Amino acid sequence: MKLAAIVRSAALVSAIALIPATTAGLAQVDGRAGPEFAKLFAVYQRIKASYVEPVEDDKLIRGAIDGMLASLDPHSAYLDGGDLQRLETMIDGNYSGLGLSVVMDDGAVKVVSPFKGSPADKVGIKAGDYITHLDGKLIYGGELDDAVAKMRGPAGSTIRLTIFRAGREEPFDVTVTRGVIELEPVTHKLEAGNIGYISVNEFSRDVGADVLKSWNELKKQAAGRVNGLVLDLRQNPGGSLDEAVALSDLFLEKGQIVSQRGRAKGESLVYNAESVFRGDMAKGVPVIVLIDAGSASASEIVAGALQDQRRAVVMGERSFGKGSVQTLLPLGRTAALKLTTARYYTPSGHSVQEGGITPDIQVPQLSDPDLAKREKFRLRESDLRGHLVNEAALKDEELEKDRKDDPRFQMTADQLKEKGIEDFQLTYALDTLRRTTPSAMARRN
To answer: Which residues form the signal peptide (predicted)?
Structure first.
């Protein structure tokens, strides 16, 4: 397995930066750790001598490595073979599969978000769903990488998923036909009133340039008179840090976009505007950024930057809350360590970790018929076992309560459907832009 393609990709915010692992750079083992290493070796010897069946050395060593990383946080991991190959395909192109972002939650595979337009999205799989079986075989208690590998496969092949969903009395099966998941996920549309809509589904390569291209096409369709723009980052689990900076820079002419702070030398960095693109591509045009609980990592960097810089109104629901940076440390030619090395902060110094980005205007997705029941089981960073704790020591109740009852948001999903509204959050954002002048949006407090 080659690391060359991964090294070319710079940084991911799931967020992965890349630092060469040299002998001189490796941390020296603290002398006080000697007795602890003795315990580890003693356990190894006992297993080799007394376990009911012979155990290969590579299995025991891999188990020890995985155990060390599992004791840290949910995003640190050891990668080799197929794991590295999957990371490379996520960065460099496309792959055949279902189009799901998933995490392991207490032994269960839980959906963070389906990529918009993916095979999983088309069959109705939702954020917060638990996948319990694949083709009738129980996957609870297994390894996340094994489950992901089984969900991958040739385009056109099918797989049967057993889903547990909050609000449903019993699990149900859904058959999904795998497709080629294209990691060029920017789409756009000109809505009524010359309001532009750009959806970014994943921060893969060239997203910044793709958004700029979409904006130019929207201007042509609107004969140069775009009256507002909705930037949709919902269900976007993140990706390239470089592309998050590039996308933010499309709208900013000065100031900071994001900073990261780590313990090791070289891990504390500041990213500023005007470093990728010059000027504000949509200067004078009011912008609304849509986020939800599936908006994570790179999505939160963009939303936080435009919110703090007063360039956009952020609307929707509180984001996932992944405010950490993972560095990919190559271990020889066939393996690498994905290690959490820093936290990132919005321009105002706000740590996204746990708390996420709070919208300026909180708008529930009323068109989701299972909204009330699924909110009880909604997954965010603060729900993951071993997550990094926010340095601001946020109280649980501040994280758990997104909104109070609002008289504007009382319609049911059925009532909205009768009116032809399938996406309440988007409809609310578009209506807001239609009735708001650019000067009033620029003056928002």
So the answer is: 1-27
